[in-house]
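Students often ask why we bother encoding 3D structure as a string. The short answer is that it lets us treat folding as translation between two languages. Here is a chain of 404 residues written in the first language.
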Amino acid sequence: MPSAIVRRLLFWSPWVLAVAVILVFLLQPDPVPVDIVAVQRGQIVSSISEEGQTRVKEVFVVSAPVPGLMRRIELHAGDVVTAGETVVAQIEPSDPAFLDVRSMAEAEAAIRAAEANERFAAAAVQRADAELDFARAELRRFEQLVERDTISANELEAAQRRARIADAALEEARASLKARSSELEQAKARLIEPTSARNRQRANLGYIAVYTPVSGTVLRVPNESEAVVAAGTPLIEIGDPRQLEVVVDLLSTEAVNVEAGQRVLIEAWGGAEPLDGVVYRVEPYGFTKVSALGVEEQRVKVLVELVDPPEQWRKLGHGFRVHPRVILAEAEDILKLPRAALFRDGERWAVFVAVGEMAELRHVELGLQNSLEAQIVAGLQEGERVVLQPGGRVSHGTLIAERG
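And here it is in the second language, the structure alphabet:
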């Protein structure tokens, strides 16, 4: 009996083992296809990049010193000017304004009133002249009578006083007539209509020449055509294009990490190679700026000085767009890993290391980081292979297979 059982076991054992192997093979999970990257040594640069623009450090705006008619400005952007010699603009008296119906009627009534006052003053002159003639004739008679002792000296003095009063009255009347004549001319002047440019040239009116206060290059002429300007109107902007700086508006949360003296790479300016610059000022005053998406952001202006010689960036001008990249920190010959391989495991950073065909969870310590890479301080060795973008399908012990 026992021998029969043994024979049966020996007969069925290979079949049972084969079925077990087949079941294990069929039930074994497929490896998860993943991308794998090796830990390498290299350089990491932590930086902040934002769109900025160039500007001349010192821009001088020449304004109109008086109101009037500005003649056409002959200067153009790029012209060289000399302080105290180059005439920026010429301003002459502007034409009077047109009168409406009521103003015209008031001006004509003022003329009629001025003419009447002038006639009244002329009559007063004639009356004072007659009074003076009479006083002088009376004085001559009294002088003859006093010689004959017919009148007293007191009466002679009274006649002399009346003659002087009459003479002063005549001068007063003549001055009043001149004033009334001037008032008439002033009233007529209110009726003067605007003249054409040709008549204005024939009138040979004077003008004020506006000179540039500094030497440099014309950057911009807001309005070069002839126009009536008010006092203080900007006429022209002057600066030195060889003294350029770069201004960039950074988010206030980023600007707190920027300090004077940090290196700057000025990219996307049109040249083949980036330009070198250095931060020389972080303005202490923030301002609100609305982004393209309509979000209010607190921004801070950071000023960058160009280090390269002007010959290298001579084609740059005022208001050109550039992309400065402020270098916050950089390190050479360090272990680094793409940030896509990192994920948070609780309070620590972790990666999945490819050990054979399995994924092994490994905690790491990070150092310097940027948007693409991170420095590995501890937890990994050079050459070790880690899973890139593991996702939710990979966990500790998961079978993995590198994508071909």
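Translate back mentally: The CA atoms of residues 35 and 87 lie 70 Å apart. Keep this in mind for the problem set.
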